[in-house]
């Protein structure tokens, strides 16, 4: 095994353990929270801009603040809901099933993280390095990337590595 394999297993393991500890519902709700916060920032950030532009002279800082404050506010509100929901779930007794599903969620998240990093590193010379070429898992990960490319629009595929 090479450095690639150890990093691959560490990312998968850490994400899986985190998912197990937090549980599926908390992990899934966190994902929904980030997506909702991003959507809210895109939708409501421009509406907050006039308020921030009165307080800050630099327009770029005002824009950044308007989007960031909306994003963080929505994330905090959903986080409070998530915390309440988690305590209700623990009282219901879904603990072990929730943890096992959280483990699988974490493993999938870890694989997605690895895939994104491998795709980004595909634009560099790293895939030609011996520690990458001789890795046990690099071929499997690249095969998954090839499979996922079949879902990418054909005009974008030419820009992807591998």
Automatic annotation (TrEMBL):
Coiled coil: none annotated. The keyword Protease does not apply. It comes from the Bacteria. GO terms for biological process: toxin biosynthetic process. One of its GO terms (cellular component) is membrane. The chain crosses the membrane at residues 6-25, 32-53, 59-81, 101-123. It is a multi-pass membrane protein. Keywords: Membrane, Transmembrane, Transmembrane helix. Pfam families: Colicin_V. It is found in: Membrane. The keyword Membrane applies. Its main location: membrane. InterPro entries: Colicin-V_CvpA (IPR003825), CvpA-like (IPR052719). This is CvpA family protein.
């Amino acid at each position: 095994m090479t450095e690639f394999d150890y990093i691959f297993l560490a990312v998968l393991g850490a994400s899986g353990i985190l998912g197990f500890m937090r549980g599926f519902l908390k992990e899934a709700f966190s994902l929904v929270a980030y997506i909702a916060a991003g959507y809210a920032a895109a939708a409501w950030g421009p509406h907050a801009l006039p308020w921030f532009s009165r307080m800050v002279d630099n327009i770029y800082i005002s824009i950044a603040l308007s989007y960031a404050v909306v994003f963080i506010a929505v994330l905090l509100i959903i986080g409070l809901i998530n915390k309440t929901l988690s305590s209700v779930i623990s009282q219901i007794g879904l603990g072990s099933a929730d943890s096992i599903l959280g483990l699988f969620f974490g493993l999938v998240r870890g694989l997605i993280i690895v895939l994104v990093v491998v795709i980004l590193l595909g634009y560099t010379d790293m895939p030609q390095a011996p520690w990458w070429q001789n890795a046990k898992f690099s071929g499997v990960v690249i095969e998954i990337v090839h499979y996922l490319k079949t879902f990418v629009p054909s005009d974008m595929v030419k820009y992807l590595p591998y």
